[in-house]
Amino acid sequence: MNRVIAFGVAMIAAMAIPAAAEQANGQKATDFKLTDASGKTVQLSDYRGKTVVLEWNNPGCPFVQRHYESGNMQKTQTAAKAGGAVWLTINSGAPGKQGYMEAPAARKWVGDSKSAAAHYLLDPKGIVGKGYAAKTTPHIYIIDGQGTLRYQGAIDDKPAARIDEMPAARNHAVAALNEIKAGKTVSVAQTQAYGCSVKYAE
Questions:
Q1: Do the strands 140-143 and 52-56 form a parallel or antiparallel pair, or are they unpaired?
Q2: Cα–Cα distance measured from residue 73 to residue 64, given in angstroms and rounded to the nearest whole number
Q3: Which tens digits make up the pLDDT trace of 103-130?
């Protein structure tokens, strides 16, 4: 990876931002740095050799709430971890917008929701979110151990309003992770993400 989107509470490094979002399947995913809710600096390339899942999150979004209240997101995170993948949740909500949280609130939400993500990353200026063209919450990206983007889109194929409808869904994230682990081509590599719009700074 030779591109880095860098942002952190303490402005970890100078920012190098793509002129436009250009994350394409089959190409190297842009590296980035963010600070997590515990104040730790996390860089995507630190996980080279492992599959990484990026999940855009807004706790105030009904679609996100549905996946967490049902346990579906945590179940997917746990399955990813069991398969050797690293799960990074990213909040690109801007201050004053729905879902925006400072670190203490984010830590509380992670505990209350029983999130199984490795890190909850804060991106209040939306630099990484815009660099990845994340449009909704949730919006999922999966990057393989070589740093290549292999999947982007929805977590599943059923944007149902009712939790009892969710078991009928195809979990695109789990399917892609299983195929990557098996050395296969991801059969459904890009889908239309659904949910709430990411509440970026204007």
A1: antiparallel
A2: 8
A3: 999 999 999 999 999 999 999 999 999 9
Contact in structure between 41 and 35 (CB atoms under 8 Å): yes
* Phi, psi of 63, rounded to the nearest 5 degrees: -70, -40
pTM for the model stands at 0.91
pLDDT per position as a tens digit, 77-96:
999 999 999 999 999 999 99
Residue 94 near residue 129, CB atoms below 8 Å: no
Tell me what the pLDDT averaged over the chain comes to. Answer: 90
Q: What CA–CA distance (Å, rounded) separates 37 from 182?
A: 33
Question: Are 178 and 186 in contact, with CB atoms under 8 Å apart?
Answer: no
- C-alpha 12/C-alpha 98 separation (Å) is 26
Q: Where are the alpha helices (DSSP H) in the chain?
A: 62-69, 72-82, 103-113, 127-131, 172-181
Bridging pattern class, strands 52-56 and 86-91: parallel
